[in-house]
Amino acid sequence: MKAILIAYGLLLVLTKMYAQEFEAQTIDNQVAIGYGLAIGDVDGDKKADVILADKKQFVWYRNGDWKKFIIAENLTEFDNVCIAARDIDGDGKVEIAVGAQWNPSETKDDQKSGSVFYLIRPQDITTQKWTPIRLHHEPTTHRMRWVKTSKNQFALVVVPLHGRNNTVNAPPTMRDATAKEAGAKVLAYQVPNNPATDAWKYTLIDESLHATHNFEVIESKKETLILLGGKEGIKKITCKNGKWKNEGWQVESYGFGEVRLGYWTGKKRFITGIEPMHGNELSVYAFDNQKERQSLFKDFNQGHALACGDLLGLGYDQIVAGWRNPNSENKVGIKLFVPNKDGKNWQSHVIDDNKIACEDLQLADLDDDGKLDIIAAGRATNNLIIYWNKSK
Is 118:72 a contact under the CB 8 Å cutoff? Predict the structure, then answer.
């Protein structure tokens, strides 16, 4: 009994210690929803800025004073939903693409659901709006990322929530048992020489999942790997020298909302996910063996944010996860999950205790101190918070 009490006391000390090593700073307390976050240098000052897809606006917050500037607003009738930002031409400033017209129950009419825009940078990004270039899209546009496809080439990969005519996840009154439901068409848009005037060609890289939610991108000299999470599991897609290939199931028979890749010691990889879509459970899988599964936590309510990185300087990755609806303790927030070196045992630590209904989060070193900070957007709490990493 004494040993148990000592161990419990040590766990409480560690939990408090890790929580205290992240200092919260609210940079916006008037966020409408905070659908999606991206991190990148918008103004070319070599500092990472915070970029947000909010309900009707796409905005960026300048690193340092965290002043808010509007990129674009009111592009479509329905809400904005996603954003991708990355320097793809090597000029030190990010290119931005966005998704809007968020109408997830409409899976047939692409005029009423979904949109994709490439945004043209203005001369003065602090006073002028960016010019939207409308691209082809599928209904229910939901997530997007800039992805490296070869040495100097990039593509914009866009993932819809549903395939066309998909009514499986619709309210009962909107379901159509006779409809032929298609897979969700994942498209890779090639960047033309002149993005403002030239046609954007696109390639269908997958349509095997009927409902998707998020995806992970891992780039190496050998290839680019995409882990696509959805209702039926995780699909593995690769790109080598501009050629895409569906490599089959990475994890099968479990539904996923969020999916990320992490590293244990010796560069051994693991996959972590929130199950099922908008789910309650955080899981971990050995990358090379989906049967090696661990369940780390089962008390999310609408788990909706996930990231991997070595925040504590341990030499291997930890997991940061957030949820947006009150759980069994009537709380929302963010937790940090810390493994031992081989990933066999994990401890959870509270980063945010009921102050943010987490819709999305990102990891980035915003103050150039060599440590990853946590940036999170809150839905019901209407806030955007930086959790500064003060660990030693």
Answer: no
pLDDT score, position 344: 87
b/e 286-313 (16+ beta carbons within 10 angstroms → b): bbeebeeebebbeebbbbbbbbbbebbe
Average pLDDT taken over every residue of the chain: 92
The first and second tokens of residue 349, run together, are 């630590």
Tell me the CA distances in angstroms from 373 to 178, 329, 391, one per residue in order. Answer: 49, 26, 10
Identify the sign of the CA torsion 182, 186, 190, 194.
Answer: positive
Q: In this structure, what DSSP letter does residue 17 have? A: H
- Which tokens sit at 388? 């500064």
First-residue to last-residue Cα distance in the chain: 33
Whole-angstrom distance, CA of residue 26 vs CA of residue 44: 24
The answer to whether 137 touches 114, Cβ cutoff 8 Å, is yes
Rounded to an integer, the average pLDDT of 322-335 is 98
pLDDT at 13: 45
Contact criterion met (CB below 8 Å) for 155 and 84: no
Find out whether 380 and 357 touch, Cβ atoms under 8 Å. Answer: yes
- CA–centroid distance for 287 within its chain: 19
Q: Is residue 1 scored above 70 in pLDDT?
A: no
Using a CB cutoff of 8 Å and minimum separation of 24, what contacts does 321-326 make?
A: 321/258, 321/274, 321/282, 321/297, 322/352, 322/356, 322/358, 322/359, 322/361, 322/376, 323/357, 323/358, 324/357, 324/358, 324/359, 324/378, 324/379, 324/380, 325/301, 325/357, 325/380, 326/301
Cα pseudo-dihedral 183, 154, 121, 199, rounded to 10:
-60
Q: What is the dihedral of CA 125, 126, 129, 133, to 10 degrees?
A: 20
Contact between residue 54 and residue 32 where contact means Cβ atoms under 8 Å apart:
yes
- Nearest Cα residue to 84 out of 124, 36, 126: 36
Question: Helices (DSSP H) in the chain: which residue ranges?
Answer: 2-20
Instruction: Report pLDDT for 324.
Output: 98
pLDDT digits (tens, 9 = 90+) for 233-260: 999 999 999 999 999 999 998 899 999 9
CA nearest 301: which of 273, 271, 272, 332?
332
Summarised one tens digit per residue, pLDDT across range 333-391 is 999 999 998 888 999 999 999 999 999 999 999 999 999 999 999 999 999 999 999 99
Both tokens of 86, joined, read 């990355």
